[in-house]
Amino acid sequence: MRYLRLMALGIMLLLGACNAQRNVLYLQDIESGTEITLPENYIIRLKPLDQITVVVNSRNPELAKPFNSSTSFNAITGTNVTSVAGESSLQVLTIDERGYVTMPILGEIECAGMTRQELAAEIESRIIEGGYLADPQVNVRFAELTISILGEVNKPGRYDIKNDQISILEALALAGDMTIYGNRNDVAVVRERDGKSIVTKLDLRSSDIFASPCYYLEQNDLVIVSPNKYKAATSEINQNRSFWISIASTTISLATLIITIIASK
User: Fold this and answer.
1) Which of 6, 76, 80, 227 could bond 231 through an S-S bridge, CB–CB 3.0 to 4.6 Å?
2) Same-domain check for residues 249 and 199
3) What global pTM score does this model have?
4) Residue 14 falls inside a structural domain
5) Contact by Cβ (8 Å): 157, 147
6) 222-227 and 196-202: which strand pairing?
7) What is the pLDDT of residue 90?
C-alpha cells in the first residue's frame, strides 16, 4: 500500500510538471524543421502623426540645401528664421492627420501608407521633374519609432525600434522575455487605427501567431502580457494578508490605548 501511494504521488508530480511545461513553452505545435510562411516584404509604413527626418544630398551640396531647411517665424525679432538640417540637428517633419508631409520647395506630399524608401523615391522623382537637381539622394528616417511593453516581462518599458521590422517575439526579447508568471496564451497587442484602439489577443504557444496581423508590430503599439492564474492568486493572497495585518495592527493599537487609559484612572 505504501508503495502504491508513493507511485501515485510520483505520477501526480510528473503530470504537474508536464502541465507547467505546457504553460511556459512557446510554439508547442511546431516540430523541428517545420517551414513557416511569414508575411512577405513586411515593413513598417508611414501613418498620420508620425515624425520623420528627410535629408536631401547631391554632388553639389549648395543646391541641396534649400530642401533641408525649414523656416519659422521669430516673434521676438519679427523675422523669419531659416535653419538647415545637418548644421546643428536634423529637421523633424510631422505627417499631418490627412497623411501629408510638407517639404521645403516641393510642398505637400501624400505619404501615409508608404514605406520610408517609397517616400524617398517620391521626393527624388519630384526634385528631378521640377528641374531642381539632377542627382538627388534622399534619406528618410523615423524621428521616433517606439513600442511599449507592459505586464509580466522582466524589463517593462518603452523601446526604440532600430529597423523597420520587428516581430512580437523579438519585442519580448527586448523586454528580457516574459517572467515565469507570464500568460503565454494571453498576450494583447493594442494598436491605434483611425482614432480607435484595436486589441488583438495572441497565443504564443501556437504557430497561429505567424498568421496574425500583429505578429509584426507597428510604431506606437502597446504589448501587454497578463499574469497567469498562479500569479493572480498570489497577488490576491498578498493583498488579503496585508489587509488583515493592517486590521490586526489597528486593533492592537486601539486595545493598548484603551488599557492605558483605564490603567491611568
Assistant:
1) 227
2) no
3) 0.71
4) no
5) no
6) unpaired
7) 78
